[in-house]
Amino acid sequence: MTSSDDDPKASGADATGQHSFLLPLDDGDIHVCEDGPSDAPALLLIHGSASSTRSWNEMIPLLSPSLRLIRVDLLGHGRSGKPADRSYALPDQARRVGLVLDRLGVEHVVAIGHSSGGTVAVALAEDRPGLVTALALINTGPGLDAFIPAETAAIDPSQWPLTDEQLRVFASTSVSRAGYRIPEELLDDVRAMTRHTLTTTMLATRTYLEQRRLPDRLRDLGKPLLVVFGEEDRRWRPSSAFDYRAVPGAEIVLLPGLGHSPLLEDPPRTAAPLLAFTALHAVRGD
Questions:
Q1: What does pTM read for this prediction?
Q2: What is the pLDDT of residue 150?
Q3: Which residues of the chain are under the pLDDT cut of 70?
Q4: Predicted pLDDT of residue 149
Q5: Whole-angstrom distance, CA of residue 283 vs CA of residue 133
Q6: How is the chain classified by DSSP, letter by letter?
Q7: The CATH classification of domain 19-281, taken from the options 3.10.310.10, 3.40.50.1820, 3.20.20.30, 3.30.559.30
Q8: What residues does 31 pair with on adjacent strands?
Q9: 8 A C-beta contact, residue 117 and residue 87
Q10: Angle at CA of residue 138, ends 277 and 218, nearest 5°
Q11: How confident is the model over 139-178, as pLDDT tens digits?
């Protein structure tokens, strides 16, 4: 745990009551949010590409009464540092997350990741199998063969900075619910990224999946697994959720009418299987 001189809690709570602070690591500052009772079982919530801790905002009231929720902005995202001379490879991102949990005194955690955040959760479990007790993946593609190519070049991150219209196109495949508009603050998270951090972090996910598909990694880990998938996902082939059947005991939940980001489109329906899963596998802190 941190000393009294650099205690992250010293930054206090924000207007929503959550603790929000920066933790300095050797290779970059990591922004962290904490909600819920400090002695409750810990859940780690990891955002997807070009997103941040704010993507979980609507889920927090549904989960926090009985759980300790820990969110991180991965390096290069949100309010974390965006250095141009650090590694954004997934094992390094996972290592930083593990260090954050160590600094917070967390010994066991259920790791939940949305989209590419799920790949970071898997990398964390590979690096720290004693820390991660179970994993839940939300619309995380099992391999590159499940990826649905973009229909337009307007979202090409090499065209930087993106115009507002390009940002809307970039975000459009993340939801399916008619009339749903991506919150402006989440678009601001994309705007706040540099071209380097955007392209490098997206390449890092691709590289990790090229090296080995997630079901194969998870099968070797032997951790309890929940896979939640919006049936109308336009980034990852929805039927690919069943590729995770290769993991013994994996639970697969499909959400009809929802797309790539069910945590935004329908938080209550997304929270329900997560709560049931964590009730079985979360470990209470000391």
A1: 0.91
A2: 73
A3: 1-18, 151-158, 177-178, 285-286
A4: 87
A5: 8
A6: ---GGG-GGGG-B-TTS-EEEEEEETTEEEEEEEES-TTSPEEEEE--TT--GGGGGGGHHHHGGGSEEEEE--TTSTTS---SSS---HHHHHHHHHHHHHHTT---EEEEEETHHHHHHHHHHHH-TTTEEEEEEES--SSGGGB---S-GGG-TTS-SPPHHHHHHHHHTT--STT----HHHHHHHHHS-HHHHHHHHHHHHHHHHH--HHHHHHHHT--EEEEEETT-SSB-GGGGGGGGGSTT-EEEEETT--S-HHHH-HHHHHHHHHHHHHHH-----
A7: 3.40.50.1820
A8: 22
A9: no
A10: 75
A11: 999 999 999 987 654 456 567 777 887 787 777 778 876 6
Q: Between helices 116-127 and 195-211, what is the axis angle to 10°?
A: 60
What tokens does 134 get?
Answer: 């179970």
Q: Tell me the C-alpha distance between 145 and 163, whole Å.
A: 30
The pLDDT assigned to 170 comes to 74
Q: How far is CA 239 from the centre of its chain?
A: 21
Which amino acid, 9?
K
Whose tokens are 């929720």? That residue is: 69
pLDDT in tens, 21-49: 999 999 999 999 999 999 999 999 999 99
Please report, for the chain, the start and end positions of each structural domain, with discontinuous segments joined by +.
Answer: 19-281
